[in-house]
């Protein structure tokens, strides 16, 4: 039963980077293609720094979230491509 609840929790949290970056109130990069996946990758990169501290505890979650975020980012690609703001010169 505990395994089922754990698997269900992981499945429900999967892709959370994509949803928080695309639809959140304070996104890091907003509605840009593959922003959720890039957030996971940046978190994993930042955890390799010697001064990462407690950030290292989030690495397993980011690694688990990454493939699900990639799938979710791909599914939301038409939305993010349409809502991407043009670059101002």
From TrEMBL:
InterPro entries: DUF1375
Pfam family, one: DUF1375
Lineage: Bacteria, Pseudomonadati, Pseudomonadota, Gammaproteobacteria, Pseudomonadales
Designated name of the protein: YceK/YidQ family lipoprotein
Organism in which the protein naturally occurs: Pseudomonas fluorescens
Domain of life: Bacteria
């Amino acid at each position: 039963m505990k395994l089922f609840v754990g698997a269900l929790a992981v499945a429900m949290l999967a892709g959370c980077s994509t949803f928080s970056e695309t639809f959140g109130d304070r996104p890091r990069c907003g509605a840009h293609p593959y922003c959720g996946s890039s957030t996971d990758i940046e978190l994993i990169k930042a955890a390799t720094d010697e001064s990462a501290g407690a950030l290292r505890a989030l690495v397993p979650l980011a690694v688990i979230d990454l493939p699900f975020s990639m799938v979710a980012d791909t599914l939301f690609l038409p939305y993010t491509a349409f809502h991407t703001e043009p670059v101002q010169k």
